[in-house]
């Protein structure tokens, strides 16, 4: 079993700068990756098990059903997964024998370590390289002998692209195109559907989504010596049809002043702090987004209800 880990996590000073920038915006919003410390990654895994959150189950079923067709379409090479999380999705693709080396990227060191350990046990013949980083800032993979001269295949499931605004999503897809050096990208996205079902998926009855959002505040307390009381915020998830997205937010329950890294921030009762967006793309909208980022859709696999899609993107030229 061969595992290597590289640590390119943003420095504490970057974290402080990002938080200051995000809290100066109206409404307040920080990059979604800040939700994923060790506890955030654990809570996200719990969200995936909730009855209201069907995306994970549907995408795993799609990947299992179509693994051979996907492998035939993408060809052999090094597979690069952006944001591996708990590594529930890639195994059917690794079993096809097309992947020589697997590169997992994630912002959460704990998630990355656990993911690679589990995958290496299951796929001992495949070399595993983990890179802890913010992939939205990565312009290339680090030099490594396992990657030299190898074709690259990207894998970006979980509708994680939806965390970015459409403009930032185009920039991210352009970045991945350059990083994959002519190789394909398998992109998993879910589609707009019944708003009630979508709102329930992001605000489950067991309260796990709410705990996931509030964990951001606890993470900031820990990393920036803060004094935020998470109980003074309500959690809400709303479908915003005009932007084809779910907005998840913490709402201040009172007038309050919080402190982070010795800096005070005043919130009024009812002020919202957006924790993340999840933009939903119809197949046509996904194809247009891909095209604007220099990709074309070569194939699309989808579930019976046509709510979740795996788009195989190839460089447009
Ligand atoms: C929504 S979860 C999806 C996990 C997994 N891909 C799936 O489909 O179930 C997003 C994952 O990407 C990671 N992540 C989020 N933003 C990231 C970023 N900017 N750079 C690297 N990893 C990121 C998180 O730590 C988390 O594991």
Short description:
The chain is of the alpha/beta class and 317 residues long. Helices cover 35% and strands 28% of the residues.
Task: Report what the structure shows.
The protein is built from nine helices and 14 strands. By secondary structure, it is an alpha/beta fold. It has a domain at 55-193 and 281-315: Rossmann fold. Helix 2 runs antiparallel to helix 8. The two termini are 38 Å apart. The relative contact order is 0.16. The structure holds S-adenosylmethionine. S-adenosylmethionine (SAM) is lined by residues 32-33, 36, 41, 44, 56, 83-85, 88-89, 105-108, 111, 134-136, 157-158, 160.
The CATH architecture of the domain at 55-193 and 281-315 would be 3-Layer(aba) Sandwich
**Any ligands, ions or cofactors bound here, and which?**
S-adenosylmethionine
Global shape: globular
Highest-level CATH class of the domain at 55-193 and 281-315: Alpha Beta
The helicity comes to 25-40%
Alpha-carbon Rg, integer: 19 Å
How many β strands by DSSP? 14
- Please, what is the average pLDDT? 97
> What is the N-to-C order of secondary-structure elements (H for helix, E for strand)?
EHEHHEHEHEEHEHHEEEEEHEE
- Overall structural class, as computed from helix and strand content, comes to alpha/beta
CATH fold title of the domain at 55-193 and 281-315 = Rossmann fold
End-to-end Cα distance, whole Å, is 38 Å
- State the fourth-level CATH superfamily of the domain at 55-193 and 281-315: Vaccinia Virus protein VP39
Low-confidence stretches: none
Largest sheet: 8 strands, mixed
Output the strand order for the largest sheet.
1-5-4-3-6-7-14-13
Roughly what fraction of the amino acids lie in strands? 25-35%
- Counting H and I runs of at least 4 residues, what is the number of helices? 9
């Amino acid at each position: 079993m061969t595992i290597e880990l590289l640590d390119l996590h943003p420095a504490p000073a970057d974290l402080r700068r990002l938080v200051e920038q995000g809290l100066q915006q109206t409404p307040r919003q920080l990059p979604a990756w800040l939700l994923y410390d060790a506890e955030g990654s654990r809570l996200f895994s719990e969200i995936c098990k909730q009855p209201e959150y069907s995306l994970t189950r549907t995408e795993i079923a799609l990947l299992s059903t179509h693994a051979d067709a996907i492998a035939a379409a993408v060809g052999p090479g090094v597979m690069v997964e952006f944001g591996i999380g708990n590594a529930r999705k890639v195994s059917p693709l690794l079993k096809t024998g097309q992947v020589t080396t697997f590169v997992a990227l994630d912002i959460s060191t704990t998630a990355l370590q656990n993911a690679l350990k589990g995958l290496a046990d299951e796929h001992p013949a495949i070399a595993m390289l983990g890179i802890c980083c913010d992939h939205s800032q990565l312009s290339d993979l680090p030099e490594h002998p396992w990657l030299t001269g190898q074709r690259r295949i990207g894998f970006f499931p979980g509708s994680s692209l939806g965390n970015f605004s459409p403009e930032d999503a185009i920039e991210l897809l352009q970045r991945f195109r350059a990083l994959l050096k002519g190789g394909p990208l398998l992109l998993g996205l879910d589609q707009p559907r019944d708003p009630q079902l979508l709102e329930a998926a992001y605000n489950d009855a067991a309260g796990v989504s709410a705990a996931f959002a509030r964990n951001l505040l606890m993470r900031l307390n820990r990393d920036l010596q803060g004094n935020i009381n998470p109980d003074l915020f309500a959690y809400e998830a709303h479908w915003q049809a005009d932007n084809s997205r779910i907005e998840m937010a913490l709402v201040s329950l009172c007038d309050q002043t919080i402190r982070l890294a010795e800096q005070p921030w005043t919130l009024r009762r009812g002020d919202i702090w957006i924790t993340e967006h999840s933009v939903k793309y119809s197949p046509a909208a996904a194809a247009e987004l891909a095209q604007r980022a220099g990709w074309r859709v070569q194939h699309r696999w989808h579930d019976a209800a046509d709510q979740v899609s795996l788009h195989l993107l190839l460089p447009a030229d």
